[in-house]
Every structure is written in C-alpha cells, then in structure tokens.
Amino acid sequence: MVKLRLKRFGKIREPIYRIVAVHSTSRRDGLPLEELGFYNPRTKETKLEVPAIVQRLKTGAQPTNTVRKLLEKAKIFDLINAPTASAPAES
Question: What pLDDT, on the 0 to 100 scale, is given for residue 30?
Fold first, then answer.
C-alpha cells in the first residue's frame, strides 16, 4: 500500500518536512517513491504539487492524519470529488 506521509529534514529543533509517497512498510526517512511538496511548521509555509497529489490519491494512496489535515487546508479533496470540466455534457 502506498502512503502519503511526512519525511523529516532540517536541524535539531528546526524541523522541515517533505510530503512524500512511500510504501507503508518503509522507514520514515527511507527512499520515497515521489516527493510531492514540503511543509515548514515554524512558518506554516506549505508548497504542494497538486496534480501529482491528486493523481496519487486517485490511484489509492492513503494520507496519514497530519498530511490529511494539510491537504484539507489546501482543499485538495475538493479537486478529487469535483466533476471534470472536460467531460461532455449530455443533452
């Protein structure tokens, strides 16, 4: 199973996290399948690669609780549930 979770970087007492897609059995700081963004908890700065995250979630990746909260703040789940604009309307 693929999970979306945080990978810790930074100095002691100054963490910065990367949001990554990894296998659920791998270590916290192990080799990721893909890096999808980053989060700085000190400045509350978040940068997300939205198309890649949406594609991973549509293929069944499960976010951890912390990543889920970050994605809800960025309204990523609204993009997944929204109907696609390219679909032709039936008359």
Answer: 82
Judge whether 73 and 63 are in contact, CB under 8 Å: no
In eight-state DSSP terms, residue 91 is: -
Give the amino acid at 17: Y
User: Mean pLDDT throughout 7-23?
Assistant: 93
What token pair was written down for 40?
């700085």
Only one residue has tokens 């309204």, namely: 75
Taking each continuous run of H as one helix and of E as one strand, the counts in the chain are 3, 5
May I ask the CATH architecture of the domain 2-81?
A: 2-Layer Sandwich (3.30)
**Rg for the chain (alpha carbons), in Å?**
15
Residue 89, amino acid:
A
